[in-house]
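Q: Protein A?
A:
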Amino acid sequence: MPKIAITFVMAIGMILTPIYLLSMSRQIFYGYKLFNTPNSYVFDSGPRELFVSISIFIPVIGIGMYPDFVLSLSGILSNYFYR
């Protein structure tokens, strides 16, 4: 019985997490009132928002293009922690 409850809670979390993250990302990038404001531009980001976006975007692209680096790093760390 506890395994079924844990599985159910995990499934609910897997469903609600993307909904929350996508709505939060939409509010961050587009604001609360996307279509109600006149002359609303999509690319009105300041330097801080661009820095955060690029800081997230570059590692994602790098890991997608060269996953062997991350996998070898995880192997090194597993050998270090599990001696």
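Q: Protein B?
A:
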Amino acid sequence: MPGKRKRQAYDNAFKIRVIEFVENLDNNSAAEREFGISEKLVRDWRTNKDTIVSGPNKQKRRVVMCNV
């Protein structure tokens, strides 16, 4: 399927950089274009800003696979 992206994990340093960029412009779409990420992802990171800033810089979201 064309246009489908591979799932990507971002570290907290990158997320903080995106959040600061967005807060200066107050425009999620501009961050989407600048960093090549979805606007929904930017909104989620802004919502969870306190958790992201207080966490370690290298923390990435972990996906756990369960065999059923």
